[in-house]
């Protein structure tokens, strides 16, 4: 019994179809990397997966989606906002919830955010914000982790650590990313998107870096490493 | 090879705005002959000289109780603004969903604070309730509109990141309110500054704020005293960021409670009679249709007043635009030289703008009226200078937040190539917002005898013809809503609004 499957599905925003006639299925327990250029449809696919899994999936969005004025604690707490009453949530803004605080604190410690839990997110560096966004997703405590470039602003070493935490706490993970080496080393399966379709869907043991570079036509032509290309893209955005 | 485009040809946003602006100026120029701009003053110079002398040598010793006047001015502004915000915030939450709420807000803000004061005065007398209600009522409508616009600009990303099933209230508290809190707070601060000016103006109808003493000193020719009071008020506005600091506000709020007063004894029967009978035409209450005809015929011919009101608003808007374009470099860091001279130049520029924008427009109009005689000219000058300086100040602040891409350009290059293209959409948006305010102020200038709608409203109140006053207020409000709708269509879209003091 697969976790989720699509059959001949058109995906897009409104009338604009990004991924036509998509057929795909995911098994529970898989760790899947989604690769492809920006605009290839990774986010569209993840959004649809999120819609279908609803409250079974924890969600870590692209660009963090944090609230700069609120503290790290409150941003992480937002992962379970739906499990408390509006009144409890309001009181928590004025005085942190006794039960939630130690849980959030130990989670932050594990992700390398020691001593920052009271700090407004506005004062954090890009890498620290990224980890807060991951912490918020982990705090949701779901079976499936869905991440849209959750490692975009951390270094490869950090990314490996974060991914280990994610895998430890989730049965299944589906993650869009640009780090090819990480995709090959730490995931079970790679799905490559290009020109509105899936051009690669294979277990990682059957793949090498050259297969993945083919997903990035520009990078292959100009002979730049994909990591560099994605870094440049992040710097420009 | 292609031929270079002709005058004002092209599709860039700057050129579009420039064409639009020139069209506005052209309309104003065409209509200008309709306005009565005669200079009919006999010998204003002695009077004016005494006024200038009063400003240069203020008679500090002549002030009787400046402290209590200042305290009352601040208290009214503080609580009036606060109550307006408290009433306006919930309205902002449903502003875009309810036509009724939008209409209600447009109506309450279309009537100037001073006219609200005249209305409440009949019921609550010269009391704190009149003062607070006169400020809080239109401000609730303004806050509702501006807060709703700010809330609309809330970034969506945090909201989309929330887990499934998050409640509406929790979503608002965590993923919406904190994202716009800074903008809401800074707009509220600006409105407080407007509230201070309005609080001074309330003195003109008899509430003992600074304006009360200012008006009587002016009217009785005690210009030394008037000068001292004006300097006090300039000082108050210029030091606002010190005494109005965020941390001091709770203390000020509590202290203000002791200064507010007197509290009226409201006579329920009188209040009811005023609301149910005095405000409405007697024939209408009696169901007498033919009597209504006679009642309408008794109202003075309003057509010239309406034409004057609209014309003055258009002229005031264009005048403000011109003054704002000329004045903003005075207060901007980009146009001050280096060293002590530069600092001095900028300080003087800022002081001039503070003076122009804090002097109540009624006072400016009064001075010009004395100088130029009773026509639309003094009102035009007063409106243009006051509003132009206010917008210039906001634009200068906006400019100081920008960094030049190419240092070392001459001043004209800095103005025309670096800064104005970036500032102009915002400037024009501010002017469009301001058009509505200018229209409200034209009505106000009627109190000085300038033949706008406000003149008839003021005299209706004077003769205790409240039914006629309400009728005229409704016409004024209707005009305001019309102009608001026009300016909304005219103003540049997608401009991040930089806290207009609208």
Write the layout of secondary structure elements.
The complex is a heterodimer of chains A (237) and B (502).
Chain A: E1 4-13, E2 16-26, E3 31-35, H1 42-53, E4 57-60, H2 72-77, H3 86-94, H4 100-110, H5 126-139, E5 144-148, H6 156-169, E6 172-176, H7 180-186, E7 189-194, E8 197-203, H8 209-213, H9 217-222, H10 226-236
Parallel strand pairs in A: 3-6, 3-7, 4-5, 5-6
Antiparallel strand pairs in A: 1-2, 7-8
Chain B: H1 13-31, H2 45-56, H3 66-93, H4 99-110, H5 113-124, H6 128-152, H7 157-161, H8 168-202, H9 210-219, H10 223-238, H11 240-243, H12 249-259, H13 268-278, H14 282-286, H15 289-297, H16 303-327, H17 339-358, H18 361-372, H19 376-400, H20 411-445, H21 453-462, H22 466-490
Helix pairs in contact in B: 1-16, 2-10, 3-6, 3-8, 3-12, 4-6, 4-22, 5-6, 6-8, 9-10, 10-17, 16-19, 16-20, 17-19, 18-19, 19-20, 20-21, 20-22, 21-22
Condensed summary:
Chain A has 237 residues and is α/β, with parallel strands linked by helices. Chain A has 10 helices and 8 strands.
Describe this structure in words.
The complex is a heterodimer of chains A (237) and B (502). In chain A, α4 (100-110) crosses α5 (126-139). Chain A has a six-stranded mixed β-sheet with strand order 4-5-6-3-7-8, sandwiched between helices. Chain A has 237 residues and is of the alpha/beta class. The model of chain A is unreliable at 220-237 (pLDDT under 50). Chain A has one domain (4-236): 3-Layer(aba) Sandwich (Rossmann fold). The termini of chain A are far apart. Helices cover 40% and strands 22% of the residues of chain A. Chain A has helices spanning 42-53, 72-77, 86-94, 100-110, 126-139, 156-169, 180-186, 209-213, 217-222, 226-236, and strands at 4-13, 16-26, 31-35, 57-60, 144-148, 172-176, 189-194, 197-203. Chain B is mainly alpha-helical and 502 residues long. Chain B has two domains: 13-41 and 279-490, MetI-like fold, CATH 1.10.3720.10; 52-269, MetI-like fold (Orthogonal Bundle). Chain B contains 22 helices and no strands. Chain B has helices spanning 13-31, 45-56, 66-93, 99-110, 113-124, 128-152, 157-161, 168-202, 210-219, 223-238, 240-243, 249-259, 268-278, 282-286, 289-297, 303-327, 339-358, 361-372, 376-400, 411-445, 453-462, 466-490. In chain B, α3 packs across α6 (128-152) and α18 packs across α19. Residues 496-502 of chain B have low confidence and may be disordered. Classes of the chains: A alpha/beta (237), B mainly alpha (502). Chain A binds chain B through residues 54-55, 58-61, 63-70, 74, 78-82, 84-86, 89-90, 93, 133, 136, 140, and chain B through 157-167, 169-171, 173-175, 178-179, 181-182.
């Amino acid at each position: 019994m697969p976790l989720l499957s699509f059959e001949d599905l058109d995906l897009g925003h409104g009338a604009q179809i990004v991924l036509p006639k998509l057929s795909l299925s995911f098994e529970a327990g898989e760790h899947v990397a989604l690769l492809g250029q920006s605009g290839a449809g990774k986010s569209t696919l993840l959004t649809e997966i999120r819609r279908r899994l609803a409250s079974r999936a924890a969600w870590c969005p692209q660009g963090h989606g944090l609230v700069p004025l609120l503290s790290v604690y409150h941003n992480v707490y937002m992962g379970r906002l739906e499990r408390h009453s509006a009144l409890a949530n309001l009181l928590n803004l004025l005085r942190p919830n006794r039960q939630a605080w130690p849980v959030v604190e130990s989670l932050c410690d594990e992700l390398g955010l020691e001593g920052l839990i009271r700090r407004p997110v506005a004062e954090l560096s890009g890498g620290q914000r990224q980890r807060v966004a991951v912490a918020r997703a982990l705090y949701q405590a779901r079976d499936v982790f869905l991440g849209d470039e959750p490692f975009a602003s951390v270094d490869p070493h950090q990314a490996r650590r974060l991914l280990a935490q994610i895998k430890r706490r989730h049965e299944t993970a589906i993650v869009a990313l640009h780090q090819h080496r990480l995709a090959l080393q730490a995931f079970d399966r790679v799905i490559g998107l290009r020109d509105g379709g899936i051009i690669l869907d294979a277990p990682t043991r059957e793949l090498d870096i050259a297969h993945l570079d083919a997903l990035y036509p520009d990078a292959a032509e100009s002979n730049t490493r994909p990591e560099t290309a994605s870094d440049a893209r992040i710097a420009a955005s | 090879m292609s031929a270079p485009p002709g005058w004002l040809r092209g599709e860039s946003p700057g050129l579009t705005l420039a064409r639009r602006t020139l069209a506005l100026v052209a309309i104003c120029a065409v209509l200008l002959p309709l306005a009565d701009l005669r200079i009919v003053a006999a010998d204003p110079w002695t009077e004016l000289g005494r006024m200038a002398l009063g400003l240069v040598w203020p008679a500090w010793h002549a002030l009787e109780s400046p402290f209590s006047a200042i305290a009352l001015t601040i208290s009214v502004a503080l609580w009036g603004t606060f109550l307006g915000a408290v009433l306006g915030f919930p309205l902002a939450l449903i502003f875009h969903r309810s036509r009724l709420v939008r209409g209600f807000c447009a109506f309450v803000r279309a009537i100037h604070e001073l006219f609200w004061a005249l209305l409440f005065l009949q019921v609550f007398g010269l009391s704190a309730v009149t003062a607070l209600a006169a400020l809080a009522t239109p401000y609730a409508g303004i806050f509702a509109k501006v807060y709703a616009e700010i809330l609309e600009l809330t970034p969506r990303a945090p909201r989309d990141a929330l887990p499934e099933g998050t409640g509406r209230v929790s979503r608002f508290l965590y993923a919406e309110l904190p994202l716009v809190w800074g903008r809401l707070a800074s707009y509220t601060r600006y409105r407080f500054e407007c509230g201070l000016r309005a609080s001074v103006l309330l003195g003109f109808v008899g509430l003992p704020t600074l304006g009360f003493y200012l008006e009587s000193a002016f009217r009785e020719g005690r210009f030394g005293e008037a000068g001292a009071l004006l300097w006090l008020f300039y000082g108050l506005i210029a030091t606002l960021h010190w005494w109005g600091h965020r941390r001091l506000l709770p203390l000020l709020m509590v202290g203000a409670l002791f200064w507010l007063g007197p509290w009226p004894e409201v006579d329920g029967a009188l209040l009811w009679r005023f609301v149910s009978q005095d405000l409405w035409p007697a024939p209408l209450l009696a169901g007498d249709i033919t009597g209504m005809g006679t009642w309408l015929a008794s109202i003075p011919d309003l057509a010239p007043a309406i034409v004057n009101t609209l014309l003055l608003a258009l002229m005031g808007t264009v005048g403000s635009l011109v003054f704002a374009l000329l004045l903003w470099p005075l207060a901007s860091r980009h146009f001050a030289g280096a060293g002590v001279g530069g600092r001095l130049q900028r300080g003087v520029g800022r002081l001039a703008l503070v003076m122009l924008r804090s002097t109540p427009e009624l006072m400016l109009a009064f001075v010009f009226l004395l100088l130029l005689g009773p026509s639309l000219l003094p009102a035009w000058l007063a409106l243009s200078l006051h509003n132009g300086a206010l917008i210039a100040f906001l634009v200068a602040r906006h400019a100081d937040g920008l960094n030049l891409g190419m240092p070392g350009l001459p001043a004209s290059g800095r103005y025309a190539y670096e800064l104005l293209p970036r500032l102009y959409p915002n400037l024009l948006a501010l002017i469009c917002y301001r058009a509505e305010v200018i229209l409200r102020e034209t009505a106000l200038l009627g109190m000085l005898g300038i033949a706008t709608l406000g003149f008839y409203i003021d005299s209706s109140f004077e003769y205790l013809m409240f039914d006629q006053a309400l009728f005229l207020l409704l016409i004024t409000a209707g005009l305001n809503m019309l102009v608001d709708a026009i300016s909304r269509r005219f103003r540049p879209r997608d401009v991040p609004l930089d806290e207009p003091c609208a």
